[in-house]
User: Fold these one by one.
Assistant:
Number 1:
Amino acid sequence: MSLIVQKFGGSSVRDAQRIKNVAGIIAETYLEGNDVIVVLSAQGDTTDDLIEKAQEINPKASRREMDMLLSTGEQISVALCAMALESMGLPCVSLAAWQVGIKTTGAHSQARIRKIDSERIRSELDQKRIVLVTGFQGINRQGDVTTLGRGGSDTSAVALAAAFHADLCQIYTDVDGVYTTDPRLVPNARKLDEITYDEMLELASLGAQVLHNRSVELAKKYHINMEVVSSLERKPGTKIKEVVKMEKTSIAGVAKDTSIATIALKGLEHAPGVAFQVFNMLSKNGINVDIILQSFGNVDDAKEISFTVSRKDLDDAVKLLTENRQQLRFKELETDDKIGKVSIVGAGLLSNHGMAAKMFEALYNAGINIQMINTSEIKLSVLVHEDDVNKAVKAVHARFFDE
Ligand code: ADP
Ligand code: ASP
Ligand code: MG
């Protein structure tokens, strides 16, 4: 007997038919003699629809009230799926994250799981019940509902797998595994049988929507046996593990992210501490910065610092920087939200310089201008105009996988 955590995403529980299909998968796992904890996302586009409803009433609604609203989607899914299991005569119970005791940090809309109480779930499992838990949410120290960021149900599943020492955490979705790039954009993308935690973490962080990046971080930390599988077809998916069998000759995949924007600070004083002040202020105000480029401007002895932020943080960042212009010692601020990031990820990237040249050549041949470049041990990202992002993914993917 094993303990298995099964997570089903929004499209897998889209309507009654899909919920019955999911109940069938859960039933099969349970009837094989396993303990099963199920994590569900909101049905179909429910979360987007709820956001739209909020926008109609108050586009500046507080994050606390947004969390109250968005967390309801998952509650519908677990209740409906429990009903489907009940109709099959299977013992089950649906629980909202606050009933379980999924404790998070306080930051509404981007909370992190701190700890999961085990008593309630343990006692339900001991009574041989299938436990269905709402994904994407928890409660903070004030007892208020929090959410974990878009796509966060994957993280709920892995956190539960870690808390209960599950033998396996299965992420069921609408594709049959992790591909070398989004198969909806590049139909001949290849399915990976396995991928390392590190590569998957980079792909997820760089925009591959198939897994929430934090879920991979947790899976690596707690050595969770994790796989991405299709809820619609029975076939092997992709295993995410510490080490993969084959010696890699190419990259693992290509990812894109169009949810970013750049900010350029111009005419900055060329003195120690300038960069520290800017980035310290941003970080203290909860604004994450990704790629940073510093260069000398044309004017006097001044320098320029350009960096990327999440597009949703752009207005807050600009307001903060502009209000503190004197103190931060810059003359002008420019923004660009018509950009996107295209990245390649692979364990051997840094030790294989040919990879970077190959990527740049593919972009050059496609006539795409690179605005910024960023590298790390296992990834290489470029910023390009937003309109060029899909073309860039296709060109780079073809260069690495079709030739
Ligand atoms: P769920 O609702 O099940 O959580 P998501 O929509 O969050 O599903 O993630 C699945 C989607 O991720 C796929 O439909 C696919 O279009 C997209 N995707 C992006 N990059 C990849 C990739 N490298 N491999 C597989 N799917 C990817
Ligand atoms: N329903 C949430 C979202 O759409 C969480 C998830 O699907 O993982 O972001
Ligand atoms: Mg998802």
Number 2:
Amino acid sequence: FRLLGEKGIPTHFVELVGEREMLVRAVEIIPVEVVVRNIAAGSLAKRLGMEEGTELPRAVVEFYYKSDALGDPMVNEDHIAVLGLATPEELGIMKRLALAVNEILRDYLAQRNLILVDFKLEFGRHHGEVILADEISPDTCRFWDARTKEKLDKDRFRRDLGGVEEAYREVWSRLVG
Ligand code: UDP
């Protein structure tokens, strides 16, 4: 969040409080998950019949309605408007910020031999402004080792691959040295 803030992305981050907590600005969460993808994986690979690992010619943005009862269905701009989840203006800001975050994180991670396959962001309203909120972690992103393509994210848990903690520690050590 600090890196993104330095690069001009408005975020909820204020400061770290110890190793496992951060002080943040309170927001009203917008119930739309924004997913950005650089490489086909997970639900996109399945839905479109693409082989996992296929590089996409451009970044793909998807929206999901945050609803446990409905199982977080994928929605488009029209669905979001008729449900009143976000205004078209807010959605435009979210999409623009999500693509900017993608550029920043992709470069930052590439320098640390990590491929940013895809990730999910959440945004919130803070004094009328749309800002980036929630978390960014191996729970919400797919990170692959640039050389071996080894998965270093929650897929290790989801797909029962083992080595979950080791993978998270590896990401941590590449990020903070
Ligand atoms: N994701 C997330 N929370 C969710 C759903 C997805 O953080 O509730 C992230 C996931 O970690 C991945 C990206 O969004 O980095 C795309 O996920 P996908 O649609 O492929 O679904 P999945 O295979 O994770 O079920």
